[in-house]
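step 4 of 6: structure.
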Amino acid sequence: MAVRVSFKVNGKSVSSEVEERTLLVSLIRDTLRLTGTHVGCDTAQCGACTVMMNGRAVKSCSMLAMQAEGAEITTIEGVAKPDGTLHPMQAAFKEHHGLQCGFCTPGMVINAIDFAKGNPNPTEQDVREALEGNLCRCTGYHNIVKSIMAGAKAMAAAK
Amino acid sequence: MHPFIYHRPANVNDAVTLAAKGPDHKLLAGGQSLVQAMKLRLSSPSDVIDLGSIKDLSGIKASGSEVTIGAMTRHAEVEKSPEVRKAIPALAALAGQIGDRQVRAMGTLGGALANNDPAADYPAAVLGLGATIVTNKRRIPADEFFKGLFETALAQGELITSVVFPVPKRAAYTKFKNQASRFAIVGVFVAESSSGVRVAVTGAGPCVFRQKDMEKALAAKFSPESVAGVKQAASGLNSDLHAGAEYRAHLVTVMAKRAVENALK
Ligand SMILES: Cc1cc2nc3c(=O)[nH]c(=O)nc-3n(C[C@H](O)[C@H](O)[C@H](O)COP(=O)(O)OP(=O)(O)OC[C@H]3O[C@@H](n4cnc5c(N)ncnc54)[C@H](O)[C@@H]3O)c2cc1C
Ligand code: FES
Ligand code: FES
């Protein structure tokens, strides 16, 4: 059977017929073709599928699309300005080499943006704790932590 | 995941009517445990009843002597709530140690209690504080709620609406966490209130339990030294790839001692 789910993705209203068991990440990637959101583990461990729902970072592999009914979703595609100017957090990842292969990066950036909203000037310890739900197989985290500390300050300064 | 029929009731009555139809009708809160279980086909409900639209199931109310938290209140909300931080800082701190921040943005108090994972954190606070679980039918004291491995006193179709936590004089929760999942290998919640001292242990056994020898020792004198010499028996405790029963038993004393230290800070 199919059900209808309606929400906003990156500011645009979408309404889609889905099977009840469709995961939010499948809808985002397979139906909406927003493939910047990744699937690493599919078991709520790695955070590659992290998207923003109503301003909070959540793992889109661990919820039904139906749980997003009426919500405002932001994926990595909706983070930069329409003219292509990077979000301060994205710019910080670029500047501080916070990525290597880039697979984990969309989830890292979305989680970092949510975290930085409440932590304009975080310590290294704060950042490492905030990354408990995001795994990276390349960087060893060091530059990710640096990026997020810088990105948080840049976000606060841009306010 | 097997197919199912999805429901989004607008109020508790409709949710309960649907849930009462049979054991294949499952309530969905944050989905952080249930959706995973469904993906693994460990759970294959015929009907899923999403509580996400029932507004009066979430929220935090504090009076002088009690804090009432709605079943659908997310871990992140409890962690950040000024009311909880002021009245029962140990509870806010416990919520802030559950999983990771994405899990905390979705996971709920009611879901965590109904699930009663042997390594979950909230059961330790609920039992340690002597809280009351309020359902659509009755009020269940914590001492009667946790029945065994993933087992609770909830009847088929019974829905947790809120939990009432009495405000203690002091309390603290200390957990030795699994580095990968952040679940408790052993977590100990200690609380001192006018009605006495309670010590609740999670992660160590198949279900959260009270450590009564430690309670007695702390009632005589609330200090870390009082529990330092109290040994937990290893028999009946969990042994798995993360820790053996002997080691868990040892950790119960260590975590209890640290919890008392933290409660006195
Ligand atoms: C990566 C990861 C790490 C985690 N780490 C921890 C951790 O460190 N510590 C910890 O304690 N937990 C941890 N969890 C579990 C997490 O806290 C879950 O959110 C919680 O156990 C279940 O809550 P939920 O709201 O997601 O419930 P759901 O998954 O939606 O539901 C769980 C069960 O409860 C039932 N239910 C839900 N709400 C009600 C209600 N109101 N009344 C009656 N029954 C209800 C459902 O039918 C289902 O059987 C982790 C989870 C993940 C994915
Ligand atoms: S794909 Fe969702 S957490 Fe790994
Ligand atoms: S940059 Fe490759 S996984 Fe993180």
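step 5 of 6: annotate
 - Strands of chain A lie at 2-9, 12-19, 50-53, 56-59, 72-74.
 - Chain A has a mean pLDDT of 97.
step 6 of 6: archive
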